[in-house]
Amino acid sequence: MGKQLIKGEKIDISKINSSSNKFELVITYKNNNENSYDIDTFVCVCENNNRINKKEIIFYNNVENTDKSICFVDCFTDNTENKKTFQINLNSANISKLIIGYSIYKSNLCKQSSADITLKLINRTLQTEVFTMSMQSDIINNNAGVVGEVYKYKDVWKFNAIEYNSPNDLMSTIKTLFNVILY
């Protein structure tokens, strides 16, 4: 089992050009049999100049980025748990940062006040869990959230556990937190 991360914690996840720069990102949340809300997960590829191309936002309706280094590969739902999976190859020269976020879609009948969200990062080469992060999202008062970011610092890939909820939409939230330009 990997390290349990908390908000604000940073962790080294691999060395650049290592054979272990291939990861699986798994995000799960429970719906308590209510089905009155859904959470869509996103991985936004940020360029060196702090810009995000709309074609580089990976989710269920845009399943891979242009160089195929980030792929949305699986969406599983049963009566109690939803699971969304991304495969990530950090060896791509076009990636300087990945922002991991989600949007909340709720019906007027939604009575559940919060959702428990779990993020796991698994090293695909070694088949080992790098870390787990658990957080709660206020689904009544918020519409989006940012779980964390994967970024390059010198010669090391790191993960920053952000755990930020927002009443705004996801793109507004990302623009505010990271001062990125969306085009």
Q: Mind summarizing the main beta sheet? A: 6 strands, mixed
How far apart are the first and last residues' alpha carbons, in Å?
Answer: 39 Å
**Content-based structural category:** mainly beta
Number of domains: 1
* CATH architecture grouping: Sandwich
> Care to count the β-strands?
14
Uncertain residue ranges: none
What is the N-to-C succession of helices and strands?
EEEEEEEEEEEEEHE
Number of helices: 1
CATH superfamily heading: sav2460 like domains
The side-by-side strand order for the widest beta sheet comes to: 1-11-10-3-8-7
Q: Mean pLDDT, rounded to whole units?
A: 87
In CATH's first tier, which class applies? Mainly Beta
CATH fold naming: Lipoxygenase-1
Report strand %.
over 45%
